[in-house]
Fold this sequence. Notes:
Helices cover about 5% and strands about 35% of the residues. The protein is mainly beta.
Amino acid sequence: MYVYELPIGRRLRWLNQLHPVVNGFLGNWRISGVHRYSSGTALGVTSGQNLFGAGSARASYASTAQPLLNPSFDPGHPEKYPYLNPAAFRRPANMEYGDTPRRIPSLRVPALLNEDFSLLKDFGLRSEKRRLEFRASAFNLLNRHRLGGVDTSFDSSTFGFITNPQANNRASSSSG
């Protein structure tokens, strides 16, 4: 988070001799922003294989040559191709434990990228004690969508697909 006062206007670096009326329009503006960038959480791939009633098991890797993420995935059209590469995993055989870890560090939910900006200006009202603030804010300024809800159950018909293609809440400034 940051707040930056633009150096334009009375008592500032540039155009500091402006007429008060012109300064009212051009001078003493501030910008502020909140940028949130975070990598997604690590995913684990499960299988419906049940080991003696012990619950669902982990899937196994099909081949080390296969990429875990689908190279054909298009974030603009998450319904078209799965995010995870189905060819990279397999269902373990009976009486076999899956060899994928609980969470695969290199396999993550798509990252969160979000930028919120504000433009601000204070106006003095006949005295220094009274001020009027103009503020214009834009949340998620670059209109990035957050992909979430990856189906990690290998036996599911929607395995690897993003089941919630719009996971952020655009109605709130605390979008996640």
